[in-house]
Amino acid sequence: MIRLATIKDVPALQGLIALSARGLSSGYYTTGQIESAIRYVFGVDTQLIVDGTYYIFEKENTLAGCGGWSKRNTLYGGDQHKDVEDPLLDPARDAARIRAFFVHPDHARQGIGSQLIRACESAAQRNGFTSFELGATLPGVPLYTAMGYRPLERIDEVLPDGETFGIVRMRKNL
Questions:
Q1: How far is CA 157 from CA 30, 76, 96, 145, in A?
Q2: Half-sphere exposure of residue 41: CA atoms within 13 angstroms, side-chain side
Q3: CA 6/CA 174 separation, integer angstroms
Q4: Integer Cα distance of 44 and 128 in angstroms
Q5: What is the distance between the terminal CA atoms of the chain, rounded to a whole angstrom?
Q6: By CB neighbour count within 10 A (0-12 exposed, 13-18 middle, 19+ buried), where does 94 fall?
Q7: What is the set of domains in the chain, with CATH numbers?
Q8: How big is the chain by its Cα radius of gyration, in Å?
Q9: Looking at residue 83, what is its pLDDT?
Q10: Which of 21, 31, 124, 130 is buried most deeply by CB count within 10 Å?
């Protein structure tokens, strides 16, 4: 079942995000990169919850996945990754952002991410958007490619502790 996330869900979401990052990113990133990303990049962006654009996928009363879309400029990262107000996008010229997708390792590769992406794309379309952009983690690139996204550039962000974290900026046009 897919439902909108609430502020009350934040602690559980933070736990899911860390589990997902640690469980699904090995082989793509070093342990140092994963832990640094959890500390400095990954996390809940509460603006998505306030905007009503962040979803939870529950399976058998378990938080199995989460993800959202945004009508704001930020491409990726939780609250700890943003320094300034996040301006609104113009659907007539900007791409909606597909944001903060994480799946519990016990529920990976069961279609949860795909269902959440479709829900987000549909909601963004209802709000006037005809294209989407995202910042994919390396393990997420195959899923997004299968969903019709194409890579635009690789971003190697140097985090405050000196770790470099690779993200692929991707886009999909309708």
A1: 14, 12, 22, 22
A2: 25
A3: 29
A4: 25
A5: 26
A6: middle
A7: 2-131 (3.40.630.30)
A8: 15
A9: 63
A10: 124
Asked whether the whole model's pTM tops 0.85, one would answer yes
pLDDT band for 74, please (50, 70, 90 cuts): confident
For residue 78, the SS3 value is coil
Cβ neighbours of residue 171 closer than 8 Å, sequence gap 6 or more: 95, 131, 132, 133, 134, 149, 150, 152
Angle at 98 between CA 109 and CA 38, to 5 degrees: 70
Reply yes or no on whether the pLDDT at 38 is more than 80: yes
